[in-house]
């Protein structure tokens, strides 16, 4: 079973209710896919770098496969389904307010490999952007290595590529 740590630094020891809701939805979806998600919070540390270093150390000591830093005031929607004007799909991760789209792809690769987003990725993310009415400022394809646990590579898709994808 893949083990994922979500590390959240919280200066004042609090988390936003929308963060909590997003985390609960993420854990539910991950469980259905056989992924163990554990959230750890560091509180009352005025230096975010030190708090993240502590979380990184915990991830190494706990033998987690992946570590995601998510701030305590963030909101996201995992696997959002949509249908609009002939476009439909299920977006892996997005935040409408911040204009962020992320699509995860499993692929065999090594850390030294240079990866890129392809036209079919532009089309998919362009459809998500339109279908979810996001007006994305940031769109990414996030490759997760199938043959090297813990190796991840994110590739930015430009606004021009998103618009090309929608027109294809």
List its traits.
Rossmann fold, three-stranded parallel β-sheet, 2 domains, 168 residues
Write up what this structure looks like.
The protein has 168 residues and is of the alpha/beta class. The chain folds into 2 domains: 2-69, 3-Layer(aba) Sandwich (Rossmann fold), CATH 3.40.50; 77-167, no CATH class. Helices cover 31% and strands 36% of the residues. The protein has helices at 17-32, 48-61, 119-131, 159-167; strands at 2-10, 35-43, 66-69, 77-84, 87-95, 100-107, 138-145, 152-157. A 5-stranded mixed β-sheet has the order 4-5-6-7-8. Strands 2-1-3 form a 3-stranded parallel β-sheet, sandwiched between helices. A hairpin with a 2-residue loop joins strand 4 and strand 5 (87-95). Helix 3 (119-131) crosses helix 4 (159-167). The longest helix is centred in the first third of the chain and has 16 residues, at 17-32. It starts with a strand and ends with a helix. 24% of the residues are buried. The model has no long low-confidence stretch (mean pLDDT 90).
Write the layout of secondary structure elements.
Elements: E1 2-10, H1 17-32, E2 35-43, H2 48-61, E3 66-69, E4 77-84, E5 87-95, E6 100-107, H3 119-131, E7 138-145, E8 152-157, H4 159-167
Parallel strand pairs: 1-2, 1-3, 6-7
Antiparallel strand pairs: 4-5, 5-6, 7-8
Helix pairs in contact: 3-4
């Amino acid at each position: 079973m893949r083990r994922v740590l979500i590390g959240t630094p919280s200066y004042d020891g609090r988390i936003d209710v929308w963060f909590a809701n997003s985390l609960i939805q993420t854990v539910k979806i991950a469980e259905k896919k056989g992924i163990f998600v554990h959230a750890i919070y560091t509180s009352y540390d005025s230096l975010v770098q030190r708090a993240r270093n502590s979380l990184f150390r915990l991830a190494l000591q706990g033998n987690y496969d992946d570590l995601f830093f998510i701030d305590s005031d963030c909101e996201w929607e995992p696997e959002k389904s949509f249908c609009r004007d002939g476009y439909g799909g299920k977006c892996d991760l997005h935040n409408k307010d911040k204009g962020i789209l992320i699509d995860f792809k499993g692929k065999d690769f090594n850390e030294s490999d240079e990866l890129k987003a392809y036209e079919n990725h532009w089309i998919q993310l362009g459809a998500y952007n339109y279908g979810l009415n996001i007006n994305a400022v940031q769109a990414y394809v996030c490759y997760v290595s199938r043959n090297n646990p813990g190796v991840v590579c994110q590739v930015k898709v430009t606004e021009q590529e998103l618009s090309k994808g929608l027109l294809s």
